[in-house]
Amino acid sequence: MLRTPRLILRQWKEEDFAPFAAMSADPDVMRFFPKPLLREESDDLAARLAARITERGWGLWACELIATNEFIGFVGLSIPRWQSFFTPCVEIGWRLARRHWGNGYAPEAARAAVTYGFKTLALKEMVSFTTTQNQNSIRVMQKLGMSYEGEFNHPELPDGHPLQRHVLYRLKREDFIP
Asked: Radius of gyration (Cα) for the chain, nearest Å?
């Protein structure tokens, strides 16, 4: 479990699945993903994320707002399963419920995950990526001090898909300011 002044990053609980499903079905939240998720797809994803944390001790943690004990999304570290010029790697990722956007939660939680990655896991670098259209996530990457590395076509999206083109940002341990 990781803690920031306002957030807890923790293992998933059964009671997270319903709000996660609502978030994953929200077209605004899923705007930069191939499609909103059905309840079964969302539950399967949450179960896989929880299993990865159990296996490794880290992953894309459930993000809880301390003031209300409310599940607000996920933030953490993952290893992409597909191949590209920058893999294998560890990715910093996040997805928050729409009503929690604009409060600085994503960079606050991501900074805690990055600190964990560098200090506890002794990673030398981490990456983050998103579709070129996702300016909010790009701003989070910049707030973390990540450097723009260029663009690539996401290998899991078909040629011509409107979200296929992605930006890649990288953060090296020596450049990170906790």
From this structure: 15
CATH of the domain at 38: 3.40.630.30
For the segment 120-157, what is each residue's pLDDT rounded down to a tens digit? 999 999 999 999 999 999 999 999 999 999 999 999 99
Report the alpha-carbon distance of residue 123 to residue 112 in Å, rounded.
14
Domain, as residue range, for 71: 2-175
CA geometry: angle at 168 spanning 45 and 114, to 5°? 65
- Number of domains into which the chain is organized: 1
Give the global pTM. Answer: 0.94
Q: How many CA atoms lie within 13 A of 140 on its CB side?
A: 25
**Which of 64-103 are b and which e, b meaning 16 or more Cβ less than 10 Å from the residue's Cβ?**
bbeeeeebbbbbbbbebeeebebeebbbbbbbbbeebeee
Residue-wise pLDDT tens digits, 165-175: 999 999 999 99
**pLDDT value for 177:** 79
Q: Of 68, 65, 87, 66, nearest to 78 (Cα)? A: 87
Residue-wise pLDDT tens digits, 28-81: 999 999 999 999 999 999 999 999 999 999 999 999 999 999 999 999 999 999
